[in-house]
Design brief:
alpha+beta; 15 helices; 6-stranded mixed β-sheet; 430 residues
């Protein structure tokens, strides 16, 4: 059985190359070809290992074995054991035990047994950050007990936790899960919770839309950077607002903390979903234009849909009914344009460049139009054709074509203005 990397790799200032850190882990990274944790059992009894690229593909599964691709027809598939399914099982079990500290300790072993080493180490970190005297978790992380408490290895020196946290401003840490990796320069406790929340977001994203959109698996963790305060955040417009920069322009999601004691980074689920969209469905954007996006309103709307649905205490996020729908509906009612205009708004100029009422209305309109189209009880039905439009517009990169929207939805977008506004007024008044 292969050994896989732990979750803590330290990097220097964000402009420098990543360096190996011994702050929280001493496990070296292994090449991708060593990741054979998915197991597909064929009807003839043979077991094929690797990583499944397209778990929702109808005809056949493709497994990566380093640079080699192995195909297994669905008709020859007897059983499948995927990392993604093990992550879901682990996170759901962890949530059920969130009020039982001793059970949280046992979950370290469960993650190891499930071949989820990054989550095992993240869980050990969670335990020591909530129980500073937990011997098992400290030893699992390679800490040593000193005369004044536990010491964490960092830069070749043994440091107290307080000293370690002080070091993060100069030498941020990269915490690695399964589908996300998070770089932080402060607040280890809050950022550990944020990474668990991102992992739960990815599970919900695949569960909610994987089959309909044919989502790909995330085989290398998506990079997320959290900044200590808005003043340090590299803005992408007039005001600090989280954003994802697709490949080949950085391939990183950026967000920040606000206020004296923030519980979560700003719009964590929004920026995580936007990154998931590009990693599981869209792919890359134009090399010539770093502001290029495939379909702006759709990317904003789907990402905000997940932002508003994910809730719960930090570290134990779970999906629920959409939050603040009434306020979003009020904002969307302020639009002075028709839906045909929404479909063609550019990402940077309409959603990030300025901080004014028109920009706020654009965000609300994209959010609520997406939410309405996903409603399961609309008559005529909108959810199934809308998801088909999403697959074509984003997955097949057909973009923001209004003629495509009209054809797939079975009616002109102009005809949706009135029923959409009626729905907005109903939601706003609830």
């Amino acid at each position: 059985m292969a050994t896989f990397p732990g979750y803590a790799v330290r990097m220097g200032p964000l402009s420098r190359h990543w360096l190996l850190s011994l702050a929280l882990a001493v496990v070296p990274a292994l090449p991708a070809q060593d990741d054979l944790r998915d197991r597909v059992t064929r009807t003839d009894g043979r077991i094929v290992t690797g990583r499944v690229v397209d778990p929702f593909a109808a005809g056949e599964l493709v497994l990566l074995q380093g640079g080699k691709r192995v195909r297994v027809a669905r008709s020859e598939l007897k059983a499948i054991d995927r990392v993604g399914d093990r992550v879901r099982t682990f996170l759901l079990r962890r949530a059920q035990m969130q009020d039982r500290p001793k059970a949280q300790e046992y979950l370290i072993d469960e993650a190891q047994q499930a071949e989820l080493p990054g989550l095992a180490r993240l869980q050990a970190l969670w335990v020591v950050l909530h129980d500073a005297d937990n011997v098992k978790a400290h030893e699992f992380l390679g800490h040593q007990r000193g005369p004044k408490g536990w010491l964490w290895l960092h830069e070749g020196k043994r440091l107290s936790f307080e000293q370690l946290e002080a070091e993060l401003a100069e030498h941020p840490l990269r915490l690695v899960g399964e589908r996300f990796a998070l770089r932080c320069s402060a607040g280890l406790r809050a950022n550990t919770a944020a990474l668990f929340d991102l992992e739960r977001l990815a599970v919900e994203w695949h569960d909610a839309f994987g089959a309909d959109l044919g989502l790909r698996e995330v085989l290398r963790p998506i990079e997320v950077i959290t900044y200590r305060r808005p003043e340090e955040f590299p803005k992408w417009g007039f005001r600090p607002r989280p954003y994802h920069e697709p490949a080949p322009h950085g391939d990183v999601a950026r967000t920040f903390y606000r206020g004296p004691a923030p519980e979560r980074p700003e719009q964590l689920f929004f920026v995580g979903t936007h990154a998931l969209l590009y990693h599981t469905l869209i792919g890359e954007v134009s090399r010539q234009d770093p502001r290029d996006r495939v379909c702006s309103w759709l990317e904003i709307g789907l990402s905000m849909r997940m932002e508003l649905s994910m809730q719960g205490p930090p570290g134990f996020a779970a999906p629920g009914s959409l939050r603040a729908q009434d306020m979003q509906a009020l904002g969307a009612l302020g639009r002075s344009y028709r839906l045909t205009h929404l479909l063609h708004l550019p990402m940077y100029g309409s959603f990030y460049l300025t901080d004014d009422l028109a920009t706020a209305v654009n965000w609300s309109a994209a959010t609520m139009f997406t939410a309405w189209l996903l409603e399961p009880d609309n008559q005529p039905a909108t959810r199934a054709p809308f998801l088909d439009f999403v697959r074509q517009a984003l997955g097949e990169r057909k973009g923001d074509s209004s003629s495509l929207f009209d054809r797939v939805m079975g009616r002109a977008v102009e005809d949706l203005d009135e029923p959409f506004r009626v729905w907005l007024e109903k939601v706003a008044n609830n």
